[in-house]
Structures are given as C-alpha cells and as structure tokens.
C-alpha cells in the first residue's frame, strides 16, 4: 500500500512522468519587455531579454544590420566597450546595455538562444537627437507691465540639474539675472524625461521684446520671438482685420447689387 502511494506521488511531480522519464521544458523568451526602446544621443540604453529554461544553452545578442555577434553568455565579442551584458545571478535576465548611445546604434538587435533550430527575439532601438523645446507658440505676445514666462524642456538629464546646465539668450547676449533691471529669475529642475528650465521676466518693457533662445550644454537649442505690446494685443489686431474684411465684403456686395440694378434698368 505504501509503495503504491509513493509511485502515485512520483507520477504527479512536475517534470516527471509515470515511467520515470524527466520532462525537459524547451527554452523560451518571457516576452514581457518592450520590443521598442527609445533613448537620446549620449545616454545609456538597456535592451531587455528574459530567457526561461535555457539549461546548458547560451544566450547571445546580435546586431541585425551587420549580423555582428555582440555578446555570448556574459562575454563581449566586440571591440566597442560601450556594449555589455547585464545578467545578475541567478536571474533569467540577459539584458544588453549600450553606453553613450550614438545615432549609428539605432536599429534592430536580436536576443538569441542556441537551440536547434535557433530561436530569437528582436528589439528595435530608436535614437533621438538631444534637443530643447520651448513650450507654446514660436511667437509670444505679452502686454507691457506683465510677466514673460518661457519654459524650455530638454530631453536629456543634466547631473545635477543647475542653472549652468541651460543658458538663456536675449538676442545675442546671455540673460543677466544680476542686471540693474532686476525682476529676472530662472527655475531649473530634473524631470522624468530630462531637464526643464523656466525663465521669468517680470514687469515686461518694450525693450524686453526680441528673440529668446534656450541653450542646453548637451543638446540643440530652441528659440521663440517675444513681442511686448503697448496696449493693443494680437486678438484686437485680428478683430480689426476681421472687421476690415467684413467691411470690404459688404462694400463689394453693394457694388455688385448696384451693377445688377443698373443693367436691369437698361
């Protein structure tokens, strides 16, 4: 009776059949990681690959565009030291890390397991240029005496974030926060997507009009044109234009009506 109970228990153990044969699970990719990865020039990128039940098999990374084997197991097979494998024991993770990403690194990478036949998982790396963006329109209109508020987002991080990481220019001159004019301040902070710099110019004067440029120390700059208006604002100007157009159309209609009536009289 006891022997029969032991045999029955063995028969239901995972990976063991009633005939005493061990069931070996085939390797596969635990496809929970993003297949599209985006990064910025100069930053690091991690392409994730989780391989399950590999046994004594090997996980490798290959660059698709030139079929170059970059890594195999924990070893790197390229002279480019920017590439490495992240494999914390005893995890199933075999992640490819690329430091100081360059535009040429964009493209498809394959995580491979040397089964027969070989299985692979493709990951696409998208590389963006490091650039600044100023929120809102490229033309900013403010009333004289109000506050000019310009916010610049940079899609890379500066470590640590500081006012020195982003400079602001008014025309060709760096904005001077210690000038006798006063009322100029800057707020710089690190965000999830990069760095944000906010320029505030209080009590705007007509001389504050002009081109303002956000210049990060590690990205392309961005510019806006600020117009300080004395009284009239763009909405009023657009209203005047609409009124003028309306008046023109009314006069045209009157002339056309007069012409028709003249022809009828003849």
TrEMBL record:
Query: What InterPro entries has UniProt attached to this entry?
Result: Ig-like_dom, Ig-like_dom_sf, Ig-like_fold, Ig_sub, Ig_sub2, Ig_V-set, Immunoglobulin_dom, Zig-8
Q: Which PROSITE patterns match?
A: IG_LIKE (PS50835)
Gene Ontology CC: one annotated term: neuron projection membrane
Q: Which domain of life is it from?
A: Eukaryota
Query: Do you know which SUPFAM superfamilies this protein is assigned to?
Result: Immunoglobulin
Q: Which Pfam families match?
A: ig, V-set
| GO terms, biological process | synapse organization
* Annotated Ig-like domain residues: 27-114, 117-225
PANTHER family hit by this protein: DEFECTIVE PROBOSCIS EXTENSION RESPONSE 7, ISOFORM F, DEFECTIVE PROBOSCIS EXTENSION RESPONSE DPR -RELATED
- Supply the name of the protein: Ig-like domain-containing protein
- Source species, please? Euphydryas editha (Edith's checkerspot)
